[in-house]
Amino acid sequence: MQASASSHPAEAPQAGTDASGGHPCRLLLIDDEVGFVDVLAKRIARRSFEVHKAYSGTEALRIIRDLRFDAAILDLKMEDMDGIDVLRVIKRMAPHLPVIMLTGHGCQEAAREGMEAGAFDYLTKPCEFEELMKKIELAIQSSGGCRGRDARAVRG
User: Fold this and answer.
1) Are 143 and 135 in contact, with CB atoms under 8 Å apart?
2) CB-based contacts of 116: which residues, under 8 Å, 6+ apart?
């Protein structure tokens, strides 16, 4: 499964663009629940974000190696790698990348561990879409907003 960028409808609000309105903010969704990721990616893309998807921790790390992101959403529990382990590697690779942890398990200890490992914040699944969007916008603002993009492409 490759990362894919979603389209940006012309009528979408400009919530996911940089201050000049020119570059869409680039977001990475990391979760092994394919249906959840696909639906969430479409909804976020409607807000003018450039959304990339990773269906495993391993895939996410490969994508982050090749592209620069403005924020990431990371599931805590995945089949191939624990979300906390993925977060630790992400923070070594891209220390300023704000990462929002998602968990369907409601485990406060794991959420606390994620915050200690450098997560920007966390939400428990299912969460309200607008609440997630507010967290994404705060995360991007906290890191200085959307920046210019690397010309590197995701390697297959």
Assistant:
1) no
2) none
Looking at per-residue confidence, does 6 or 123 come out higher?
A: 123
What pLDDT is stored for residue 44 in this prediction?
97
Residue 88 has which token pair? 């630790």
Print the domain residue range for 85: 26-142
What's the rounded Cα separation, in Å, for the pair 152 and 155? 9
pLDDT of residue 147: 62
For the chain, how many structural domains are there in total? 1
Look up residue 97 and give its two tokens: 């990348």
**CA 2 – CA 100 distance, rounded (Å):** 22
CB-neighbour burial class of residue 23 (10 A; exposed 0-12, middle 13-18, buried 19+)? middle
The CATH number assigned to the domain holding 102 equals: 3.40.50.2300
Question: φ and ψ at 101, to 5 degrees?
Answer: -85, 140
Asked whether the beta carbons of 70 and 147 are under 8 A apart, the reply is: yes
pLDDT in tens, 82-140: 999 999 999 999 999 999 999 876 677 888 899 999 999 999 888 899 999 999 999 99
CA-based nearest residue to 19, from 156, 146, 155: 146
pLDDT for 132-146, tens place per residue? 999 999 999 998 888
